[in-house]
Amino acid sequence: MQNLENKTALITGGSKGIGYGIAAALVAQGMKVAITSRSQEAADKAAAHLNKIGKGKAIGIEADVRDFTSQENAVKEVLEKWGQLDLLVANAGIGHFAPVQDLTLAQWHETIDTNLTGVFYSLKAGVEALKSTKGFFISISSLAGTNFFAGGSAYNASKFGVTGFTQAAMLDLRKEGIRFTTIMPGSVATYFNDHTPSEKDAWKIQIEDLGQMVVDLMQMHPRTLPSKIEVRPSMPG
Fold first, then answer.
1. How many domains is the chain built from?
2. pLDDT at 18 over 80
3. Which among 8, 42, 177, 202 could disulfide-bond with 15, CB atoms 3.0 to 4.6 Å apart, if both were Cys?
4. Known catalytic residues?
């Protein structure tokens, strides 16, 4: 089992939801974790909570995955502070759901630019650092990345793209020692799409479950790679 103490991670969209759940699990293992948000205030607030959890450390970084320079700067800040990057989690995402004839151009571009291009930008910005550590790149896709549904044209396209992109990048870079996993959750109890989690969401996947999954992936012997993981609630609500 791999010791995670003092390893470093950068998680996009880590101030709440899945990203925060992953950050919390990593900090509890003693990792140094940078979380990004488009709001510095939100990133700092989440980092303050994370710093109360365990033996690891957390910092907040203002960054927008739709802006490549912003992603480069986030990686640079991690390297300047901690000297290495062992894990990059491309988690930031957004959802616009409407029949294709009603979907606006702005909604299409925001969905694709955030969910798909943002994953490319994150990897592109961090790839050299990950080569140095033989690190790990994890993208958060969705079961919507393999199952299409009405009203999901933009979201489906973005998540199908994330799944395909990550798996192809794995083939491009595995000889460099970088490991890749695509995690594809179903219903998760998060704030996604303006939802507020409540007791009614107890049947759903919880963010700490996905956090534990990332810990398990990081601790797995490097010879073995779960490259694509579908995750769903054991029983539908």
1. 1
2. yes
3. 42
4. 155
